[in-house]
Amino acid sequence: MGDPKGFLKVKRREGGYRPVEERINDYHEVEIQLDESGRREQASRCMDCGVAFCHWSCPLGNIMPEWQDALYRGDWKYAYEILQQTNNFPEFTGRVCPALCEASCVLAVNDEPVTIRQNEWFVIDKAWELGLVKPRIPQNRTGKKVAVIGGGPAGLAAADNLNQFGHTVTLFEAEANVGGFVRYGIPDFKLDKKVIERRIGLMEEEGVVFRTSTRVGKDIASESLLKDYDAVCITIGARKPRDLVCEGRDTGGIHMAYDYLSQQNKSCSGEKVCRESLIQALDKDVVVIGGGDTGSDCVGTANRQGARSVYQLELLPQPPAHRTEDMPWPLWPRLHKVSSSHKEGCVRLWSVSTKRIESDSEGNVKKIHGVKVQWDKDESGRFVMKEVPGSDFTLNADLVLLAMGFVHPEHDGPVNDLGLEKDERGNIKVDSSFKTSVDPVFAAGDARRGASLVVYAIDEGRRVAAEIDQYLLS
Ligand SMILES: Cc1cc2nc3c(=O)[nH]c(=O)nc-3n(C[C@H](O)[C@H](O)[C@H](O)COP(=O)(O)OP(=O)(O)OC[C@H]3O[C@@H](n4cnc5c(N)ncnc54)[C@H](O)[C@@H]3O)c2cc1C
Question: Measured from the CB, is residue 454 less than 6 Å from ligand 1?
Fold first, then answer.
């Protein structure tokens, strides 16, 4: 612990964001880093707690106090070495993780938490800049072959670790590029895709083979992988979007959020986008249905495309600004969040339900008909939604984006082809060693746990790799 009194002297300071008037005109990352001395000063706030709750709450078990100390001392090599022991892709989590660690930082009991996420981002970018991130080419190969299906953070972490264990890994990815939702869902203004490309280049040098534009179950038979590989790891994500059920749902101009976001991400990277199916917000009244992060990404994208107005609707009530009794420290609190995209301009409506979508004479969306709702507990303590009488409203809309989450993985493809058992929510069912109902098939990430976070996907990828390694060597 570099400065035992750091937390008493230094206040939390974040890098902040580029000014709205500037950032709204481009897709470059909006968040700014502090300079080196500012960052090191922030790391000095870490109290090196006896029980480090940040370490406990991080799904990856990142060893925060140790690398905060190394960062404070400017020992970049050591900080990076500690960080990469537990996290394959700190450059992803350092940019987009909601930072479960900060919510449980002991300093947050009566002060503001250490800026752990931004510190992580600084350490890993510095490590790349200084050439500390070098290819680690396995010296011995086991002769075992593993197929990984799906190149999101779970599949990438699994492939990375399996390769480091000495197995020969081929990763099959349906899209032209790997990265999953981190590449095609999360907008460039939150995470520049060069960050992914840099990491993939390294993994290629280390020996991972990427077979992109190859959808397993279509371009290559799922069953063939069972013959050609010693183990198969399925990390296809949870990509079946939750749909809106209401009158007028089949009206033109209503799109799934991911279809919209992936087009913009492809355009930013110079990938081909089909002109006929282009979804554009320019000069349109845009209504985003769904109040979460995906919805917020749609808001930021629509504003950059020049939307006339942007509304974001949420069925649930606005969460509280501060912790309440039912979400005490060090648990993760469900609090009201205002993202950088929200600050760029949008009207947020809470506790509203969409009742009907009205179309114009050409069958395109014209208006949304909604109503306010109220959530009350019934006798069994369950929350029940009721419409508020007389609270009906309409909103003009030329483009409606559905951002209501994802229900489970796509079942067409490897899941059905291989006859994998599913759990009650439709995710791939596995045992305690991530093994599915079919030998030697394993599953991890959102495909197994349901739609989640990058940090959980990386963690699952690491854990499934360890299980596959055990299986192959037993
Ligand atoms: C718009 C959006 C914003 C998000 N923002 C954040 C955020 O800010 N912070 C955060 O922590 N999390 C965020 N998330 C969630 C996070 O991105 C996911 O939890 C995470 O990417 C899941 O990783 P995964 O590897 O399990 O699946 P995915 O990332 O979904 O990757 C699955 C991969 O499998 C491929 N695939 C599917 N089927 C096949 C097949 N048959 N053959 C070959 N390949 C196949 C897909 O093309 C994809 O590349 C966001 C998600 C979305 C949609």
Answer: yes
